[in-house]
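Need a sequence for this fold. Nothing fancy.
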């Protein structure tokens, strides 16, 4: 387990170096950095992901939280691993306001990706906790083979969120974030990149 965590930190360090180098590249080369990070991720072994389980979407709560029905019939909330979207329905503890800048747009974007009744795949990450302090299940969530966390980050309506230590998909998520920032998508255009402020 310790070795796995150390490998994850090395990947974060590598992604950090690449992002620093990107910020000092001339414009034409800078536009190629997200693709380079994506190729790096494709070359890395992600076989440590746990076996996925199936679930049915009940409702979209906000840009990073879904309510789902599990195979045993139980209903629970799932928080996307390593993705933090603007708050829409809960008070953000760090700021105290109810709806963040971009909160409604993030919810709407998630709602454009999935709808009630969709079949989802939930994949745990052995380097991360299985649930958070609010009782939400933590998982990578995909529909039709498309990772919802990565899609939200790439669209600019979520950012990479590392709680204690990086998860196994950190490099591909960082590549998605770099693409969103480079192209000023989502919160990078609507909120100058800072969604931890109240909606206007």
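Here you go.
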């Amino acid at each position: 387990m310790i070795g796995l965590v150390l490998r994850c930190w090395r990947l974060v360090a590598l992604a950090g170096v690449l992002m620093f180098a990107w910020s000092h590249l001339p414009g034409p080369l800078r536009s190629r950095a997200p693709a380079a990070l994506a190729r790096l991720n494709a070359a890395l072994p992600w076989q440590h992901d746990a076996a996925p389980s199936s679930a049915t979407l009940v409702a979209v709560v906000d840009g990073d939280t879904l309510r789902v029905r599990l195979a045993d019939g139980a209903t629970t909330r799932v928080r996307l691993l390593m993705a933090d979207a603007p708050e829409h329905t809960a008070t953000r503890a760090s700021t105290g306001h109810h709806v963040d800048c971009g909160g409604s747009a993030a919810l709407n974007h998630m709602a454009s990706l999935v709808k009630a009744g969709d079949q989802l795949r939930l994949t745990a990450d052995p380097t991360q906790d299985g649930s958070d302090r609010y009782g939400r299940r933590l998982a990578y969530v995909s529909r039709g083979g498309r990772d919802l966390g990565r899609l939200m980050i790439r669209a600019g309506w979520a950012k990479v969120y590392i709680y204690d230590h990086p998860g196994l998909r950190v490099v591909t998520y960082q590549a998605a974030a770099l693409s969103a920032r480079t192209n000023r998508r989502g919160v990078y255009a609507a909120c100058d990149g800072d969604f931890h402020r109240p909606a206007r």
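For context: The chain has one domain: 2-190.
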